[in-house]
Write a structure and sequence with these properties.
single chain; alpha+beta; Immunoglobulin-like; 4-stranded mixed sheet; 4-stranded antiparallel sheet; 2 helices; elongated
Amino acid sequence: MVVKQWGGAAIAAGLLLATPVAAEAARLSVDGKVQLEDTAEPLGQTRVTVTFHGHELGIHEYTTSRTVRTSTDAAGAFAAQAKINSGRYYWTHATILVSATDRTKSHEFQSPCVGSDATGWVCSKDLWVSPIATELEVPLQAWLMQLEQA
């Protein structure tokens, strides 16, 4: 009889430990603005991919990431948010990829994350992207100068 009671108690404790504990969700967020470098003109309707990078608390070798995709509005502003389980990870930075458009090449930026699970992890960045014309003008001008000298 004692064996059955002990066995039942062991099974009940095992089921209790196997039940996941509901954790409050913390937030990762990044906001910013995408503008052309030479004119400060906003780059609207552009796809932005944000990858948040972090590691498990106490174990720096175990890294993790969360990816969120969004687009800029007409004023070039964007915001991306992800919900995470609180208390498990320390978020270090975000990689922000601005997709190529007909006026710019794709650009990648880094932004440090600050905060905590209680306040939320926040990354912010105003991004200045080079127009394609600017990237091509310098080599073209150098080539034309070489032709004139020859």
